[in-house]
Design brief:
Elements (H helix, E strand, L loop, with lengths): L2 E5 L2 E3 L5 E8 L7 E7 L6 E6 L5 E3 L7 E6 L4 E6 L8 E9 L2 E4 L3 E5 L2
Parallel strand pairs: 2-11
Antiparallel strand pairs: 1-3, 3-8, 4-5, 4-9, 5-6, 7-8, 9-10, 9-11
């Protein structure tokens, strides 16, 4: 049974930081491309960042310079370090694991940026 479990969300003030984690089980973690996505209320889900099996990274323009995606294959975990958070970063953040035709999603964790 494949599981992706996110954690680390919460309430933070503008300018603050959070570190999200996504722990995977039931997959050969190190061969998967991993991604963080977010969905704000009333908006479509959007890509935030991805990291390949070779640790190449990609960031959406909204995340560049503020967010860092990383992976720990020994711990089967992907991280999203978010700094300089803005009100518009408020969303449910979900992780995704992809390998060929296999795609798995976590349930999401809420990030709320508010003063």
């Amino acid at each position: 049974q494949v599981q992706l479990v996110e954690s680390g969300g919460g309430l933070v003030q503008p300018g603050g930081s959070l570190r999200l984690s996504c722990a995977a089980s039931g997959i050969i973690f190190n061969i998967y491309t991993l991604g963080w996505y977010r969905q704000a209320p009333g908006k479509q889900r959007e890509l935030v960042a991805t990291i390949t099996s070779g640790s190449s990274t990609y960031y959406a323009n909204s995340a560049k310079g503020r967010f860092t995606i990383s992976r720990d294959n020994a711990e089967n975990t992907v991280y999203l370090q978010m700094n300089s958070l803005k009100l518009e970063d408020t969303a449910v953040y979900s992780c995704k694991a992809v390998y060929t035709r296999y795609t798995y999603w976590g349930q999401g964790t809420q990030v709320t940026v508010s003063s």
